[in-house]
Amino acid sequence: ADIGFTSSTIPKLVVDILAHSGIISYMRCLTQMSFFIFFGCMDSVLLSVMAYDRFVAICHPLHYMAIMNPHRCHLLLLMSVSVSAVDSQMQNLTALQVTCFKDVEIASFFCETSKFLDISCSETVIKNIVTYMFGILFGFFPMSGIIFSYYKILSTILKIPSSGGRYKAFSTCGSHLSVVCLFYGTGLGTYLGSSASYSSRKGMVASLMYTVVT
């Protein structure tokens, strides 16, 4: 998922920098958008699954092998792929409804639905509805699951009597928590931030954080 997510945007960015060009065709833009959304959503869902895995490992250690058995892991993986495919197709279908453009320049280094709708002739209300709807479905709900998991994890860790035991338990969550903060912090800030305070430069820096750095 990470390799696909990065590969959907960075190779084109490198080529554009080397060629001093930022041109992309309509069909390639839609294709890039489709892969970007698919792997981005899969990353989001998998981060939630990983939070659930940490929750089970720390809060129910004796039942870990029974709960996170291969069958359940396969189901969670299948759910991640299915949800990502549905999200990608829904957003692509939304983009395909746009038939009129007021500009041909996208304020980003890759094609994404919100920027694509920004240059359409359709009303801003439709763009906001689409952006917030997908943000809530595929950003807010997975993030809520992660927050709930870590609430339970912290509650369990605080009950451990020794500081060494608490550190050992929480250290297994460190890398996951770092990626969650970077991915969701910059990602949701980019998509759900106020348009009044938005600048294309800040948006591109935030995009680099959640597409490359994580």
From TrEMBL:
Gene3D superfamilies: Rhodopsin 7-helix transmembrane proteins (1.20.1070.10). The lineage of its organism: Eukaryota, Metazoa, Chordata, Craniata, Vertebrata. It comes from the Eukaryota. Residues 1-214 form the G-protein coupled receptors family 1 profile domain. Pfam families: 7tm_4 (PF13853). InterPro entries: GPCR_Rhodpsn, GPCR_Rhodpsn_7TM, Olfact_rcpt. GO terms for molecular function: G protein-coupled receptor activity; olfactory receptor activity. The gene is OR7. PANTHER family: OLFACTORY RECEPTOR. This is Olfactory receptor family 7. Keywords: Cell membrane, G-protein coupled receptor, Membrane, Receptor, Transducer, Transmembrane, Transmembrane helix. The chain crosses the membrane at residues 33-52, 129-151. It is found in: Cell membrane. One of its GO terms (cellular component) is plasma membrane. Its main location: membrane. Possible taste receptor. It is a multi-pass membrane protein.
